[in-house]
Amino acid sequence: MPRNKSITRLCENCGKTFSVKPYLISRGHGRFCSWSCFRASKPEIHERFWSKVDKNAPIHPIIGTRCWVWTSNMDDEGYGLFSVSEKSMRAHVFAYQEAHGYLLPGFLVLHHCDNPPCVRESHMFVGTHVDNMRDCVEKGRLPQAKLTPDAVRLIRKLNTEGASQREIGRRVGTSHTNVGYVLRGELWSWVP
Ligand SMILES: [Zn+2]
Ligand SMILES: [Zn+2]
What we know:
Layout: E1 7-10, E2 17-20, H1 22-25, H2 35-41, H3 43-50, E3 53-54, E4 69-70, E5 81-84, E6 87-90, H4 91-100, E7 108-111, E8 124-127, H5 129-138, H6 149-160, H7 165-172, H8 176-183
Antiparallel strand pairs: 1-2, 3-4, 5-6, 7-8
Helix pairs in contact: 6-7, 7-8
């Protein structure tokens, strides 16, 4: 059987048949026909998710509204991790799907606010890898120059050692504007 041939399943919530690609089943997509059937079958998950979100983070300096910051487990890149049925998924993707339904295969959930733990739907958009690269270019940074929790700690350390914001930006590989946001606590204030 070709690897990408769809197979038919019965939705565990509404009983409808639906088709799913085998590789998505390993990512937990094989049980429900839609995100709303998934939610309806496990309403407590919704509550558990939002209990881990801090809606009082500082107002984002560019967007002008508050990031809603994940306060539980994070991965190395600073994205929130939420466990659902013994698998963990990125918290911002969960939040996006809460609002819009299952993400189509091949798409990523990206952040307008450049703040990986943010799960506020209006701060996110959907795109491909190409869009991700273009977004990085428009924001004047390389994809790998995105800030991470380690980079934020390094920025603070260099600041206590007396380096200028421009010098810190050069050494960390980000703009001096980003360095300013970090040092004033307007972005990434959640990093301990
Ligand atoms: Zn269903
Ligand atoms: Zn945000």
